[in-house]
Amino acid sequence: MRPDPFNPNDPFRGERPPPDRPFEPIGDASPYYDENDERWSFGPVDEPARRRRPAWGKWLVRGLGAGIVLLVVAIIWLAVTAPLSRSLQPPTPPSITLTDDDGQPIARRGAIIGKPVDAATLPPHVREAFMAIEDRRFYSHWGIDPRGILRALVHNLGSGGVREGGSTITQQLAKNAFLDSDRTAGRKIREAMIAFWLEAWLTKDEILSRYLSNVYFGDNVYGIDAAAKHYFGRTPKTLNIGQAAMLAGLVKAPSRLAPTSNLAGARKRQAVVVAAMEDAGFLTKAEADAVRPQRVLAQRPETLPSGTYFADWVLPEARDQAGEIKTEATVRTTLDRRLQRLAERTVRRAGLRQAQVALVAMRPDGRVVAMVGGKDYAKSPFNRATQARRQPGSAFKLFVYLAALRSGLTPDSTVEDRPVDIAGWKPRNSDGRYLGDITLRQAFARSSNVAAARLTQQVGVRAVIKAARDLGISTPIANEATIGLGTSTVSLLELTAAYAAIANESYPVQPRGLADVRDKSWYQSLTDRPQGFSASVHDGMLDLLGSSIRSGTGREALLTVDAYGKTGTTQDARDALFVGFARDLVVGVWVGNDDNTPNPGLSGGGVPARIWRDFMQSALDIAPVPAPVVEEAVDENVIDANVMESGDPVGDLIQGMGVDMRLGEDGSLIVGPTRGRRDEERGPPPEDRRPRDGPEEPDEDF
Q: What letters, b where the CB count within 10 A reaches 16 and e where it falls short, cover 125-155?
């Protein structure tokens, strides 16, 4: 029986026939054994050549196919994981630069990264200094220099250790831009592959440009542009041979050789580079001998401040906005550099002794344009404008009167200015004077403590707390009547933002330091939706705040334009504040001691009000209020009108601009210094030093 190779049930299928049982031809098809398939088959007699294909050819084809696949995968991997653009972004420590509202840098955190340079435009000796010490055959090799590797190997074997590296400039760029600093064989292979990749896609000048823009030079400085300015106060194009050689020498050990800390070591390394330039033929012997040891700047060059009160406050939000920072990010802030300088200058001229100061200036929409958190950041970086929580004193009465106006009262409504007892708490007016029934306007202007306590009792503590919460106060507020006098603590920034809500005619106002506002989440959009004041309430608040400056405790803050504000002085003059606004600027000022000790004679209507006024006059570019002129002949009708407007009887105080005018019993006019100023000079009235009946409450002197 003849075996059938095509019959799967044939016992002889796929087997070699024994010698005595050869397969017989079937027609024109003869049986043959297929070496590739390792089985018997039938085919034309003239096609036995298929049986002659060697076995090793199969593996050769498979190997070539696998190599092509691996090459394609490697190319795709490099294109995805190591784009050429990353060769301009060395893995430096995170660096973020803050700019003002005009885009000018104001502060920096992290590394100093120079601008990219074009190697083709640099003087030849600058390029040659780096080539001489790092890669002499840079313009002739293809990314890997076998001669350099062999030379380094010989030198290292002779010295008994790793003394010299064989990496080319291209390899160093590949390592700096794409890889970590481990010394494994895998990393060296990847480095070589990327070097070939860079050589294939970039010109030599482009590779050198990226290398010089990335390399580290010590002192947290990256790139030759930053290094030239940092060490020599020059640009790369103006470096002389010695300076270029010193910078090239730093690349080997930048932290150890930085000339600001190791000038002797940097000079020795400079001499090595100059000798290498001569040996490579870049310098003649005469030119090399003429190079002298270089000097670096005696002092660090002026750089952006790495710490300021405003920068400290805005940095966390700036990092959030920038996202993951791997190299350098630039974030634009709301700071107005002109106003910041004015704020710092105004604070310096305030004549403060041991007391500290804080100032916040913002636009009505919450954009912070200036911030001073203390007299000296270098001595104390603690930001008293944002981090300190102090009692606001009578500046908190803003919320008491807002609640009163919301309840239906008006500035012309009356309130009793008489001693009051609220569950054993007996607040007092700081000047010891009580005027009986007075308008809310008069009570707010003279900052009557008893009137504020009565209003808090009348409208309810909850209504006052709600007014404060609506305007953005987030700190804890006690549920008791004493809050009307500012016994709960608050930051100056939050308090200033609350006053900004009045200027903005809507609430709440969120203070912010970044120019670009991120989109709110759906929850924030629902909960933080701004709300407006009714016309009557807003006009009433402006009336009250204006009266405080025109004829009340804030007279020292009087401007030649419409101004609105409120003073605040806490118990025993521990804290003094003035917060107000004019035109499109809202400013809060705090003065006090860090240890919360008393400041005899200090009041919100004194130093803080004058700081506020001086800053506003400069910031708004307005003329100061002219000194009052006292005429010998006084128009009695005018005096009577003032008396009627103020509501005070004859003999009471009539407020002028910077002076006190009082009518005597005989109708004569008595002119003298402002009483508030006399009070500051002689300290608080005796009543301020007496024990209180009940809990302590802030005072406001008048």
A: bbbbbbbbbbbbebeebebbbeebeeebeee
* Sequence letter at residue 610: R
Strands 221-222 and 653-655: unpaired
What does the pLDDT look like over 469-499, one tens digit per residue? 999 999 999 999 999 999 999 999 999 999 9
Q: Which two tokens stand for residue 352?
A: 């403060």
Q: Tokens for 627?
A: 């000194």
CB 553 within 8 A of CB 676: yes
Separation between Cα atoms, residue 428 and residue 417, nearest integer Å: 10
Q: For 253-261, which contacts have Cβ atoms below 8 Å and span 24 or more sequence positions? A: 254/216, 254/217, 254/218, 255/218, 257/218, 258/217, 258/218, 258/219, 259/231, 259/294, 259/296, 260/218, 260/219, 260/231, 260/296, 260/300
Strands 112-113 and 221-222 turn out to be parallel
- Cα separation, 366 vs 131, whole angstroms: 54
Q: Using CA atoms, how far apart are residues 403 and 352, in angstroms rounded to an integer?
A: 36
**Which DSSP category does 516 fall into?**
S
Query: Three-state SS across 218-257?
Result: CCCEECHHHHHHHHHCCCHHHCCHHHHHHHHHHCCCHHHH
pTM of the model: 0.64
SS3 for 358? strand
Structure tokens at 409: 């009262």
pLDDT tens by residue, 176-222: 766 554 555 555 666 777 777 778 778 899 989 989 988 889 888 88
Per-residue tokens: 678: 């006399």
580 half-sphere exposure, CB direction, 13 A CA radius: 39
Q: CA–CA separation, 66 vs 681, rounded Å?
A: 93
Domains annotated on the chain, with CATH: 96-290 (1.10.3810.10), 345-515+533-620 (3.40.710.10)
CA contacts within 13 A on the Cβ side of 673: 6
Q: Tokens 């840079």 belong to which residue?
A: 138
